[in-house]
Design goal:
This protein is α/β, with parallel strands linked by helices. 42% of the residues lie in helices and 13% in strands. It has 2 domains: 2-43 and 281-407, Aspartate Aminotransferase, domain 1; 59-276, Type I PLP-dependent aspartate aminotransferase-like (Major domain) (Aspartate Aminotransferase, domain 2, 3-Layer(aba) Sandwich). Helix 8 (180-189) links the parallel strand 5 (162-167) and strand 6 (192-197). The longest helix is centred in the last third of the chain and has 22 residues, at 281-302.
Length: 408
């Protein structure tokens, strides 16, 4: 049965678009890589140096993670969330994706996924043999479900266990959830646990990110890591923060971890201590300043009577909808865009939307982040000339995409 489930799955679309883009570039084609979401910035210098200094570390570390790292992560999380976490609440994993998969495997109940959802949530739920309920959302409501929508699902069978995935700032929409309080009230009333995917939280443009854990910490698992704010996606270090009230879940994840990844790379765990122990506020503020300016540039230049789009609020994504009836599916449309413009986008169907809805995900990270970061001063107002100079492929790609939308 499990093998049949795997046979019906496709490779992750985010990874696939990256490989497709690289192949086309190798063939000499100019590709605008708006499909693959990856931080454009380098890892902070002090964190890189710490990795070098600990390259000799070759021992297996504790399964749940290096104690010192878990201590600094707990301290960091406690300050950010205004809740007292301890080192035993933290599980270090080889990226948060692996930890989410283990959560799907151990969870016995129904998974509630708002559309749009990150591409791996649903396939992982299928592999975990859980039922999935997808909640369709609307642009006018910031692409997040209401508490009432969630409650309607639960009232169909109040005796079930439910796990809601809440990703804010959101991949793929770039929006921030403004319904935390009403969702938390539903959480308190029923057998509902929240997996709060906060991997983009440090990159919230308003700089006052709020977590659902601030409203219902006892029923919230926080998931995040180094990949987005620290530019360290390839390092593969993520973590869960699990409250004492969900200790059974933590213990079961630890059991599965012992039979799967055993422990995260030792040198990277030692380096990660510096990532959370040292002050990287300047690095993060510059990252936000650049991403916010580039994102708003894409938004203001792409929106039209042919393209519906919300202004980005965090991370590095936008979710444009093309008012185009020439194509049967969003996937077919994205293939046409890539062929005719060189702009690589992901179709909305990969994120839980119906195939005939012409939504796409656009990642505005196809530029040299370090070059951009080195060129600007702290708190500098970034102008069009700066974007044109340091993110030229963003400017050219958006122009091609806009012309395509107007002519199609």
């Amino acid at each position: 049965m499990l093998k049949n489930l795997v046979k019906n799955l496709r490779p992750s679309s985010t990874l696939l678009i990256n490989e497709t883009s690289k192949k086309l570039e190798d063939q000499g084609k100019k590709i605008f890589k708006f499909g693959f979401g990856q931080s454009p910035f380098k890892v902070p210098y002090d964190v890189i140096e710490e990795l070098k200094n600990n390259a000799y570390q070759n021992k297996y570390l504790p399964m749940q993670g290096l104690e010192k790292l878990r201590e600094v992560v707990a301290k960091y999380s406690s300050k950010e969330k205004n809740y007292h976490y301890k080192s035993h609440n933290v599980i270090i994993g080889p990226g948060s994706k692996e930890l989410m998969f283990l959560l799907h495997v151990i969870f016995d109940g129904e998974i509630i996924l708002p559309a749009p959802s990150w591409v791996s949530y649903a396939p992982q739920a299928i592999l975990g043999r859980n039922k999935i309920k997808i909640l369709q959302t609307e642009r006018e409501k910031n692409w997040f479900p209401s508490g009432e929508q969630i409650e309607k699902v639960i009232l169909q069978d109040k005796h079930k266990n439910y796990l809601l995935f809440l990703n804010s700032p959101n991949n793929p929409s770039g929006q921030v959830c403004d319904k935390l309080e009403e969702i938390s009230e539903i959480t308190k009333k029923y057998n509902l646990i929240i997996l709060s995917d906060e991997i983009y939280s440090e990159l919230t443009f308003s700089k006052n990110f709020k977590s659902i854990s601030s409203y219902c910490p006892e029923k919230t698992i926080i998931s995040t890591g180094l990949s987005k704010w620290c530019g360290a996606g390839g390092w593969r270090l993520g973590y869960f923060v699990i409250p004492d009230e969900l200790n059974d879940i933590k213990n079961m994840i630890n059991v599965l971890a012992s039979e799967t990844f055993s422990a995260v790379s030792a040198p990277i765990q030692y380096a990660a201590i510096k990532a959370y122990e040292n002050d990287h506020s300047n690095y993060i503020e510059k990252s936000i300043n650049i991403l916010s300016a580039v994102g708003k540039y894409v938004f203001s230049n792409l929106k039209s009577n042919k393209v519906l789009i919300n202004e980005p609020q965090g991370g590095f994504y936008l979710m444009p909808e093309f008012l185009n009836n020439k194509f049967k599916t969003s996937s077919e449309m994205c293939d046409n865009i890539l062929k005719n413009t060189g702009v690589a986008l992901l179709p909305g169907s990969d994120f839980g939307f119906k195939t005939d809805k012409m939504l796409t995900r656009l990642s505005f990270t196809d530029f040299d982040g370090q070059l951009f970061m080195d060129a600007i001063e702290d708190n500098q107002i970034i102008k069009y000339e700066d974007i044109k100079k340091y993110a030229p492929k963003i400017v050219e790609g958006v122009d091609k995409l806009k012309k395509w939308s107007e002519s199609s």
